[in-house]
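Structure first, sequence second, as always.
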C-alpha cells in the first residue's frame, strides 16, 4: 500500500482515497507494522531533532554570553512559528462561518413567522436561506478537520524533535548528573511531558480567534435583541475566568498526583523486581501497606481533580442554558415581546461562541501553562552536566605503545566519599597484563580511566582506544550476534574465534536460532553466565588498544572461568594491555603487575613474586596458592549477581561437551535458555460483562440505578427548557396575529400573556437542568474513580499472592505497564471520557427526538443514515483499534531502548557507540511516527465522513420544513433546526469518544485479567504452628517431587533426606542439578508433591507466612529496597535500635552506616545502588542475624564478594548460627568443605549424602570429580580440611544421635532406612 501520503496532503482529508486500501485490509485482518506508510522525510526524527538541537545549542551559547538562563520556549517558537501561523487562516474561516450560519437560520424562521401561502418570492428567498444553512454546514465539516490534522502534525514534529534531544542528552550525562536524575524520571520526560506538545498546538490559535469571534457575535446580538444581550455576554465573561481557575487548580492537583504516581510506580518496580525476596522473607504486608498508603494519597488527589473536572463539564453543559435564561429574562422584563426567530438566532449565536470561549480558550490557557511546566522540566534536564569527552586515540603519525598512566589521582563520586590512588605510577607501557585485586574501589578506578569519574587532582593519561567489559553484564534487546558485534562488521573467522574463546560456541548450538536468537528486555532469556560471556565477547571483538575487564570471571563457574582466562584473556588478547579486576587470586600469577587496592589507597604493587617477598597482607589472601605454580582455582558462582535467583534456570541443563582448542578433555556444560511468553494482546470487541464488572467495582447496584435515572432526568430538563421557550414564542405569535379584540365600546385592548406563569416555569426548568446536571456529573466521577481504586487494590493484592512462577515468565516491564499505563488510564482519562461520552450520547438522542417530534417524516431518511453510520463505525473501529494498538506497540521500543541504553551507558560510551544508538532511537521514533501519522489521518478520515452525514441530516431537516410549510409552526422549526446544527461537531465527537471508551476499556480488561491470577496457598491457615516452633530445626524431606509449573519439567524427583538439628549441610551439584529448587520447595515457592516436615510439623498444612517467617535466607542476589536503612533491616519495626546496631556490628557494617549522613534513617538510592554488591550482601546477612531463626538457608552469595568479605560471612555464620540448622547451596567448594554433611544432587535426585571425607573416598562420585576439577593444589587443600572435619565430627554425631533418638525415634528409623 505504499502510495504515500506526501503528494496529497489536502485531498486526504476530504476523501482520503489512499486510506481506503488500508481500511479494507484492516477490516479483513489484523494490521501489522509492514502495512503502515513510510514516514515522510520532513517528519523524520533525525532531521527534526538536529534542526531543533542546533537552534538550542545556539541559544545556550548566546545565553552564556548574555549571562542569562537559556530559554527553551524561545527556541521552539523560533523553529515552528511559520508553518503554524499559516494554519490560523483555517481557524478564522471556520469561526466566521459559525457566526454567519445563525443569521441564515434567523431569516429562515422569519419566513415561517410571516408565513403567507401565496407569496412565492418569500418562498424562493427562504429556499436560498435554507441552502445557505446547509452549505455553511458542509464547509465547516471540511475546514475544521483540515485545521486539526495540520496542527496535530505540527505537535507531532515538536514532540519527535524533543525526544531526539532528550535521548541525545541522556547518552552524554556525567556521573554527577546521573545522581540528580533517575531512569524513571527520564522515561517520564519521554512518556508524559513530551506529549503536552501534541495537545497544546491544537488550541493555541484560539487565544486570538476567541476574542475576535466574541466581539462579532456581540455585534450581531445587539442588532437582534438590543442591550439585553450584554447580560448574557457578562455571564460568558464571568464563566471564562472561573474555568481558567478550574484549569489552574486542576494542573496543581495534576502535578501533585504525578509526584505520588512516580513514587508508587517506583515502589511497584522494586516490589516486582524483588518479589522473590519479599515472598521468602514474608514481607508482603509491609510492602502492601507502603503501596496502599501512597495509593491512598494519590486517589484522594485524583478524586479532587475528578470533582473539578466534573464541575467543569457540568458548568459547560449548563452554561448555554444559564446564558439564554438570563438574556431572555431581562429582555422580557424590559417589556419586549419574544418571537421564535429572535429566540433561536440568539440561542444559535450563543452556542457558536460558547464552545470557543468556554472550552477552547480556557483549554488553550490551561494547556499552555501545563506545557510551560513540561518545557521547564525538559530544560532542566537538557542543562544537566555532560561528561567531558576525552580523546584517547593516537594521532596517525605517532605509532606509540598504548598505555595508561596514573599519578597522584584523587577522585570523588559526589564530593562525599573520597577515593585516592597514592602517588604511584601505573604505567602499562611495559606491562601487558595488570590484575587488580580486592575491594570495591576497583570499579571506581576503571571508571576514572574510562573518564566516567571526573578526577580532582593528579594526572591520568590514556593513550589508545579503550574497550570495557562491565561487572554487571549488560545486553541490549536484539540478537546475540548484534550484541557481540556491537556495530562492527562481521568477519566470520574472527567472530568464530571470539565465540570459542568466550566459551559461547556450545550455547549458540543449543539456542533455537543460534546467535540470531533474540534477547529479551535486560537479557531475560539468557542466564547470568551467558550474559557475562556475551559481555566479554563484545569487548574482545572490538579491536582496541587497551582492555578494561571489570571482574568478568565472577559470574561463571570455575571450569568456564579457567577457559575464559586461558583462551581469552591470556589467549586472544595476549599481545594487548589488559587491566583485569578480579577477586580470584588463582589468576594472579599470570599477571605482569599486580595492584592491591584497599579503601581507595594503593597498598601494594609489583609482580606476583615481588609481592610475596614483600609480605603484604596480600599473602594472607593467597593462603594456599603458593604450593603449585599452576593454581587454577576455587569454583565460583555460576550465575551473575543480577539475573538468576532461585529457580529461574533450574531447568535441567543439557550437559554436553565442547572440545576446546587446547585441551581435548575440557568439558563445558551449556546452559538452557528460557523463552518469554508473548504478551497477550486482546483482539476484537469488548463485552458488556466487562463494563458491568468495571462499574460494579465502583458502586453497588442501587447507586448505579440512581445514577442512570439522574442522567435521563438531566437530559429531559435540558430539552424541556428549550421547548418551553419555543412554546412561549408560539403562544405570543398567536396573540400577535389575532391579538386585538374590539370591545363593544370601541377601545382596542391588547391581550398579554401572564409573564409570571411563563417566566416562572422557565426559571424552574433552568434550575432543574442545573441541579441534575451537576449531580449526575459528580456522581459518575465518584463511581468511576472508586472503581479505579478498588481495581488497583485487587490487582496489587493478586500480584502479591500469585506464585513466583508468574514473574519468571512475565518480564518486569509487562507487569509494571499494568500498574503505570493502565492504572493511569483508569485514574485520569477513562472517567472523563466515559462521562463525556454518556452526556453526548444522551444529547444526540435528544436532538433526534426533537426533530422527529416536529417532522415525524424525518425518521424515514434517518434509517439509512443510521445503517450507514453503524457500518462506518464498525469498519473504522477495526482499523482504528489496530492503528491505536500499533501506536502503543511501536511506542514501547522507544522506551525500552532508552532504559536499556541508560543501563549500559558506560559500555556504550566506552565503545563510542553513541551515534549508533542515537540512530537506532531515531528509527524507533520514526516507526512510532508512522503509526501516529496514520492514527491522525484515519481519525480525520472518519470524522469528515461523520460530519458529512450530519450535514445531510441538517439539509433534510431544513428542506423538509419548507416542503411541509403548511403544517409546522415557527417555534418548532427553530427548535428542530437549531438542534440539528449542533449535531455537527457533537456527533463525530460522540462517536470518537465511544471508540475512545472502548479503547480504554482494554486497560480495564488488562487490569481485570491481573486481578484474577491464580494465587498461592493462604498466608495464614487455621492450623497455626506453636509460637516457639521450630525449636530444634529438624528438616525432613519425604518423597518430595517438585516442578515450577504443572506442565513444567520435574526438577526434584522423589527426594528423601533429613537435615538434623544444628547440622551444617552443604548442597552441591552441577548447574541445573536442582540445588535452588530444593530451597524453592522448602519455601513452597511452588507447591511440592510429597511431604516436608520441620520439627514434625507438615509444612504444607500451615500458612505460607507462618512457614516463611521461621526460616531465614541469604539470597543469591542481595536486594535492598528504597527506603531507610532501618526499613531495610526491619520493615515490621519489631526490633529496638540496639538490636539493629548490634546486628550491623556483627556483619561489620556499623562503621559504614555511621558514616552515612542520617545513619539509620538514611534513605537508600534506587535498589540500594549506593552500596557495593558485597555490602548489600552483608545487609542481607544482618537481616538473617536479626531474625534469630532456627533454620538458615544460604544460597551461595559469594560470587561478587572478595575473599575478605567472604571469610567474614563464613565466620559470622559459624559464630552466630551455631545453634541453627544451616543449608548452604555452594558453588565454591572451599565454603562448604567443612560442613557436617554434604548433599550431592544430580538431575534432581540425591546422588550422595554423607560427610565430606566419606564422599571423597568414592572416586567415581560427582563430588570427587568436582574437587578434582578445582585444580591439583586446591584439591589437596580441600581433602585436608575434609579430613580434619571428619575426625571432630565422629565424636559429636554419636552423642547427638543418641540424644535425638529419644525425641524423634520414628524419624531416626526412617533415616537409617534411607
Amino acid at each position: 500500500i505504499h502510495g504515500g501520503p506526501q503528494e496529497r496532503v489536502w485531498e486526504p482529508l476530504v476523501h482520503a482515497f489512499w486510506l481506503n486500501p488500508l481500511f479494507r485490509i484492516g477490516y479483513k485482518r489484523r494490521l501489522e507494522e509492514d502495512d503502515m506508510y513510510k514516514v515522510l522525510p520532513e517528519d523524520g526524527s533525525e532531521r527534526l531533532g538536529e534542526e531543533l538541537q542546533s537552534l538550542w545549542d545556539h541559544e545556550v551559547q548566546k545565553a552564556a554570553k548574555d549571562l542569562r538562563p537559556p530559554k527553551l520556549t524561545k527556541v521552539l517558537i523560533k523553529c515552528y512559528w511559520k508553518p503554524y501561523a499559516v494554519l490560523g487562516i483555517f481557524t478564522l474561516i471556520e469561526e466566521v462561518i459559525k457566526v454567519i450560519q445563525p443569521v441564515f437560520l434567523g431569516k429562515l424562521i422569519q419566513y415561517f413567522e410571516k408565513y403567507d401561502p401565496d407569496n412565492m418570492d418569500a418562498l424562493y428567498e427562504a429556499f436560498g436561506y435554507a441552502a445557505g444553512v446547509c452549505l455553511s454546514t458542509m464547509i465547516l465539516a471540511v475546514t475544521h478537520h483540515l485545521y486539526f490534522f495540520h496542527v496535530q502534525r505540527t505537535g507531532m514534529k515538536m514532540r519527535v524533535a524533543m525526544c531526539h534531544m532528550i535521548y541525545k542528552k541522556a547518552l552524554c550525562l556525567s556521573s554527577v548528573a546521573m545522581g540528580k536524575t533517575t531512569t524513571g524520571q527520564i522515561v517520564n520526560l519521554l512518556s508524559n511531558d513530551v506529549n503536552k506538545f501534541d495537545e497544546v498546538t491544537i488550541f493555541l490559535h484560539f487565544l486570538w480567534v476567541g476574542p475576535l469571534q466574541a466581539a462579532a457575535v456581540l455585534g450581531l446580538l445587539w442588532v437582534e435583541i438590543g442591550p439585553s444581550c450584554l447580560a448574557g455576554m457578562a455571564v460568558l465573561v464571568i464563566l471564562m475566568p472561573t474555568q481558567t481557575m478550574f484549569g489552574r487548580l486542576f494542573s496543581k492537583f495534576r502535578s501533585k498526583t504525578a509526584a505520588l504516581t512516580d513514587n508508587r510506580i517506583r515502589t511497584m518496580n522494586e516490589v516486582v523486581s524483588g518479589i522473590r525476596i519479599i515472598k521468602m522473607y514474608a514481607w508482603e504486608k509491609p510492602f502492601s501497606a507502603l503501596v496502599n498508603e501512597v495509593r491512598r494519597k494519590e486517589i484522594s488527589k485524583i478524586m479532587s481533580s475528578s470533582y473539578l473536572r466534573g464541575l467543569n463539564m457540568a458548568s459547560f453543559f449548563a452554561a448555554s442554558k444559564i446564558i439564554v435564561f438570563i438574556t431572555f429574562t431581562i429582555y422580557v422584563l424590559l417589556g419586549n415581546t419574544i418571537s421564535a426567530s429572535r429566540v433561536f438566532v440568539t440561542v444559535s449565536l450563543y452556542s457558536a461562541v460558547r464552545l470557543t470561549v468556554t472550552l477552547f480558550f480556557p483549554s488553550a490557557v490551561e494547556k499552555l501553562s501545563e506545557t510551560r511546566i513540561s518545557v521547564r522540566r525538559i530544560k532542566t534536564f537538557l542543562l544537566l552536566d555532560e561528561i567531558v569527552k576525552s580523546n584517547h586515540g593516537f594521532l596517525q603519525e605517532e605509532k606509540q605503545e598504548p598505555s595508561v598512566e596514573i599519578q597522584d589521582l584523587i577522585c570523588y563520586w559526589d564530593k562525599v566519599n573520597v577515593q585516592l590512588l597514592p602517588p604511584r605510577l601505573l604505567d602499562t607501557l611495559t606491562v601487558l597484563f595488570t590484575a587488580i585485586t580486592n575491594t570495591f574501589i576497583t570499579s571506581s578506578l576503571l571508571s576514572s580511566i574510562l573518564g566516567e569519574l571526573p578526577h580532582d587532582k593528579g594526572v591520568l593519561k590514556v593513550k589508545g582506544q579503550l574497550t570495557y567489559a562491565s561487572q554487571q553484564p549488560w545486553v541490549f534487546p536484539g540478537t546475540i550476534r548484534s550484541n557481540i558485534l556491537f556495530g562492527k562488521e562481521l568477519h566470520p573467522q574472527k567472530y568464530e574465534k571470539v565465540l570459542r574463546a568466550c566459551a559461547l560456541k556450545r550455547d549458540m548450538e543449543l539456542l533455537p536460532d543460534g546467535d540470531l536468537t533474540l534477547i529479551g528486555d535486560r537479557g531475560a532469556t539468557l542466564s547470568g553466565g551467558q550474559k557475562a560471556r556475551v559481555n566479554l565477547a563484545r569487548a574482545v571483538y572490538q579491536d582496541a588498544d587497551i582492555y578494561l575487564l571489570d571482574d568478568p570471571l565472577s559470574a561463571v563457574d570455575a571450569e568456564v572461568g579457567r577457559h575464559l582466562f586461558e583462551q581469552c584473556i591470556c589467549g586472544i588478547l595476549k599481545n594487548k594491555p589488559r587491566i583485569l579486576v578480579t577477586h580470584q587470586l588463582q589468576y594472579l600469577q599470570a599477571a605482569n603487575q599486580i595492584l592491591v587496592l584497599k579503601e581507595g589507597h594503593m597498598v601494594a604493587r609489583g609482580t606476583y613474586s615481588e609481592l610475596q617477598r614483600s609480605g603484604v597482607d596480600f599473602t594472607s589472601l593467597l593462603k594456599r596458592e603458593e604450593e603449585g605454580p599452576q593454581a587454577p582455582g576455587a569454583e565460583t558462582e555460576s550465575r551473575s549477581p543480577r539475573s538468576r535467583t532461585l529457580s529461574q534456570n533450574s531447568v535441567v541443563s543439557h550437559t554436553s561437551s565442547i572440545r576446546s582448542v587446547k585441551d581435548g578433555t575440557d568439558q563445558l556444560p551449556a546452559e538452557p535458555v528460557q523463552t518469554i511468553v508473548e504478551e497477550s494482546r486482546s483482539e476484537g470487541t469488548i463485552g458488556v460483562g466487562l463494563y458491568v464488572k468495571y462499574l460494579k467495582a465502583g458502586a453497588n447496584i442501587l447507586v448505579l440505578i440512581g445514577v442512570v435515572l439522574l442522567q435521563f432526568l438531566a437530559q429531559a430538563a435540558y430539552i424541556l427548557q428549550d421547548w418551553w421557550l419555543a412554546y412561549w414564542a408560539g403562544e405570543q405569535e398567536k396573540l400577535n396575529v389575532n391579538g386585538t379584540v374590539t370591545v363593544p365600546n370601541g377601545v382596542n385592548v391588547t391581550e398579554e400573556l401572564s409573564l409570571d406563569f411563563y417566566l416562572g416555569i422557565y426559571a424552574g426548568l433552568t434550575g432543574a437542568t442545573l441541579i441534575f446536571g451537576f449531580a449526575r456529573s459528580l456522581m459518575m466521577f465518584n463511581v468511576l474513580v472508586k472503581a479505579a481504586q478498588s481495581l488497583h487494590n485487587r490487582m496489587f493484592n493478586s500480584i502479591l499472592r500469585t506464585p513466583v512462577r508468574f514473574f519468571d515468565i512475565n518480564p518486569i516491564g509487562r507487569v509494571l505497564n499494568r500498574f503505570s499505563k493502565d492504572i493511569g488510564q483508569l485514574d485520569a482519562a477513562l472517567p472523563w471520557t466515559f462521562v463525556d461520552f454518556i452526556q453526548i450520547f444522551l444529547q444526540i438522542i435528544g436532538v433526534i427526538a426533537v426533530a422527529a417530534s416536529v417532522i415525524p417524516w424525518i425518521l424515514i431518511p434517518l434509517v439509512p443514515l443510521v445503517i450507514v453510520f453503524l457500518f462506518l463505525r464498525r469498519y473504522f473501529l477495526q482499523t482504528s483499534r489496530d492503528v491505536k494498538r500499533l501506536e502503543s506497540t511501536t511506542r514501547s521500543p522507544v522506551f525500552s531502548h532508552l532504559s536499556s541504553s541508560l543501563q549500559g551507558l558506560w559500555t556504550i560510551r566506552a565503545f563510542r557507540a553513541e551515534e549508533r544508538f542515537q540512530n537506532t532511537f531515531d528509527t524507533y521514533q520514526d516507526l512510532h511516527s508512522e503509526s501516529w501519522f496514520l492514527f491522525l489521518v484515519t481519525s480525520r478520515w472518519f470524522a469528515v465522513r461523520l460530519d458529512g452525514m450530519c450535514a445531510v441530516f441538517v439539509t433534510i431537516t431544513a428542506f423538509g420544513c419548507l416542503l411541509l410549510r403548511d403544517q409546522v409552526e415557527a417555534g418548532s422549526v427553530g427548535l428542530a433546526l437549531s438542534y440539528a446544527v449542533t449535531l455537527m461537531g457533537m456527533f463525530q465527537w460522540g462517536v470518537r469518544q465511544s471508540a475512545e471508551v472502548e479503547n480504554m476499556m482494554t486497560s480495564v480488561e488488562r487490569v481485570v485479567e491481573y486481578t484474577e491470577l491464580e494465587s498461592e496457598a493462604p498466608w495464614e491457615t487455621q492450623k497455626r504452628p506453636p509460637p516457639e516452633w521450630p525449636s530444634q530445626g529438624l528438616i525432613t524431606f519425604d518423597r518430595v517431587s517438585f516442578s515450577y509449573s504443572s506442565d513444567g519439567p520435574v526438577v526434584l524427583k522423589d527426594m528423601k533426606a533429613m537435615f538434623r538439628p544444628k547440622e551444617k549441610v552443604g548442597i552441591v551439584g552441577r548447574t541445573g542439578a536442582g540445588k535452588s529448587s530444593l530451597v524453592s520447595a522448602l519455601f513452597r515457592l511452588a507447591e511440592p508433591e510429597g511431604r516436608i516436615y520441620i520439627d514434625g510439623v507438615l509444612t504444607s498444612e500451615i500458612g505460607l507466612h507462618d512457614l516463611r517467617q521461621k526460616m531465614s535466607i541469604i539470597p543469591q542476589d542481595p536486594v535492598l529496597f528504597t527506603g531507610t536503612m532501618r526499613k531495610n533491616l526491619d520493615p515490621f519495626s519489631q526490633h529496638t535500635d540496639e538490636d539493629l546496631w548490634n546486628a550491623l556490628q556483627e556483619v561489620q557494617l556499623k562503621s559504614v552506616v555511621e558514616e552515612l549522613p542520617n545513619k539509620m534513617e538514611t534513605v537508600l538510592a534506587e535498589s540500594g545502588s549506593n552500596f557495593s554488591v558485597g555490602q548489600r550482601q552483608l545487609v542481607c546477612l544482618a537481616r538473617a542475624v536479626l531474625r534469630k531463626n532456627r533454620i538458615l538457608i544460604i544460597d551461595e552469595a559469594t560470587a561478587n564478594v572478595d575473599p575478605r568479605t567472604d571469610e567474614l560471612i563464613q565466620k559470622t555464620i559459624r559464630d552466630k548460627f551455631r545453634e541453627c540448622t544451616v543449608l548452604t547451596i555452594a558453588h565454591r567448594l572451599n565454603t562448604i568443605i567443612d560442613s557436617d554433611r554434604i548433599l550431592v544432587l544430580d538431575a534432581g535426585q540425591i546422588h550422595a549424602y554423607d560427610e565430606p571425607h566419606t564422599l571423597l573416598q568414592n572416586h567415581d562420585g560427582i563430588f570427587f570429580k568436582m574437587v578434582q576439577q578445582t585444580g591439583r593444589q586446591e584439591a589437596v587443600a580441600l581433602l585436608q580440611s575434609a579430613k580434619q572435619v571428619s575426625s571432630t565430627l565422629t565424636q559429636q554425631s554419636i552423642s547427638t544421635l543418641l540424644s535425638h533418638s529419644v525425641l524423634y525415634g520414628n524419624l531416626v528409623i526412617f533415616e537409617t532406612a534411607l
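Margin note: The longest strand covers residues 403-412.
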